[in-house]
Amino acid sequence: MIRVLLADDQLLVRAGFKVLLDAQPDIEVVAEAADGQQALAAVREHRPDIVLMDIRMPVVDGLVATRRITEDPRLPDVKVVMLTTFELDEYVFEAIRSGASGFLVKDTEPEELLRAVRAVVAGDALLSPGVTRRLIAEFAARSKEPAAADALSELTEREREVMALVGLGLSNEEIARRLVVSPLTAKTHVSRTMVKLGARDRAQLVVLAYESGLVRPGWLG
């Protein structure tokens, strides 16, 4: 059973998501929160698999709450997906750097929301369709001079190649086609790379690809 925590200051938004999620045989909403402080307390109490977190909330905003969750060594398996009203919300970029596994716009289709919850729990990053490459391009445009690539020294050449393709926004299936391997092999390479670099998820792997200089601005087609 996938355990979900809903954090949004709008009761109607939470109610709508709860009805949809609880109707699924493999998903359960274990708690709700109306602000970031409540969300933090609820995460520590219930240890959900995933938090659907509104970016703008009173008391403690979603960005700060996300950072505290992802930096807490007691909560290594809790994933956070940010909820936003606008696809290119100014805080989405910072949310990814803060450790969020991705984001969804609040008016996303029900099927997409359900797919997102299951995908993130399975270890995939989730960025709204059509926005992935734009978000990565935005990250690239803001990225500073890359840090030394020492952190990549433990990676094999193939793992570096796979990491670069992840940084360009390719899915496992697209990576498999590019390298002429099976999707399972591509997924294995991605997983091993994440383990070696200590990345929580695919979104953080994208950040590391840019910060290490493995992928540079202007490489997106």
UniProtKB/TrEMBL annotation:
UniProt-recorded name of the protein: Response regulator transcription factor
Pfam families registered for this protein in UniProt: GerE (PF00196), Response_reg (PF00072)
PROSITE patterns according to UniProt: HTH_LUXR_2, RESPONSE_REGULATORY
Keyword DNA-binding among UniProt keywords: yes
Domain Response regulatory: 3-121
Residue ranges constituting the HTH luxR-type domain according to the UniProt record: 148-213
InterPro entries: CheY-like_superfamily, NreC/VraR/RcsB-like_REC, Sig_transdc_resp-reg_C-effctor, Sig_transdc_resp-reg_receiver, Tscrpt_reg_LuxR_C, WalR-like
